[in-house]
Design brief:
The protein contains 10 helices and 6 strands, in the order βαβαβαβαβαβααααα. 54% of the residues lie in helices and 14% in strands. The chain has a 6-stranded parallel β-sheet with strand order 2-1-3-4-5-6, sandwiched between helices.
């Protein structure tokens, strides 16, 4: 088996020392560099680019989710395995969506961590069964919420966004080059589709349902 070159970005010496001990027991894994901050990582990783980077989410000067897209763009061949103590479906979803090649918890057994490294090195995505179940439940909730959103036309969506920004009917009419009555018609449709009776309810429903950011 090829030697897998590893780098660690983590600001907790206890975690780093523990990983060094774990990896030293496996001849096919070689820990070459450790970085205690995002700045140190970005400054030095080019000269010692690893096959797999173990990236913590919470670093002393930044966060792993901010570093992830930068690292992936600059080093597309490098595999990034998120190694964190954050057991959150939202973080799992977002980190994988943004390009991380795996997500593993720091309290995992040493064999699990090594398996995760081997998996992402081979070009696969790693997520253990428990985290995968948690992610699946989270995705199902997202799909359910999406299914509850009323289908708005592009015009209705534009009216809604301008309404949330505080524009009056007359201002919207001028911005969209539509007659005032036409704008009133579209906004009436919004009241019907969102099942609300007044502007306050319209704004609250639009935000709570996630129709607009």
């Amino acid at each position: 088996m090829d030697i897998i070159k590893i780098a660690i970005a983590d600001d907790h010496p206890m975690i780093t020392d523990g990983l060094k001990l774990i990896l030293s027991m496996h001849r096919h894994v070689a820990l070459e560099h450790t970085y205690s901050s995002g700045a140190e990582l970005m400054k030095n990783i080019e000269s010692g680019q690893p096959d797999v980077l173990l990236l913590d989410i919470q670093l002393s000067d930044t966060t792993g989710d901010k570093l992830l897209p930068v690292l992936l763009k600059k080093y597309p061949d490098m595999r990034i395995l998120v190694l964190t103590g954050i057991d959150s479906a939202l973080y799992i979803h977002n980190m994988l969506k943004d390009g991380a090649h795996g997500y593993v918890l720091k309290n995992s057994a040493s064999a699990v961590i090594v398996k995760a490294i081997e998996t992402v090195y081979k070009g696969e995505i790693y997520l253990d069964d428990e985290l995968r179940k948690k992610l699946d439940v989270f995705k199902d909730k997202i799909k359910y919420k999406e299914s509850l959103k009323p289908a708005l036309t592009p015009r209705e969506m534009e009216i809604l966004k301008l309404t949330l920004k505080g524009y009056t009917l007359q201002q919207m009419s001028e911005i969209m080059f539509l007659g005032r009555r036409t704008v009133e018609y579209y906004r009436s449709n919004l009241f019907i589709k969102l099942d609300v009776k007044n502007m306050a309810e319209l704004i609250r429903k639009a935000i709570e349902s996630g129709i607009v950011d």
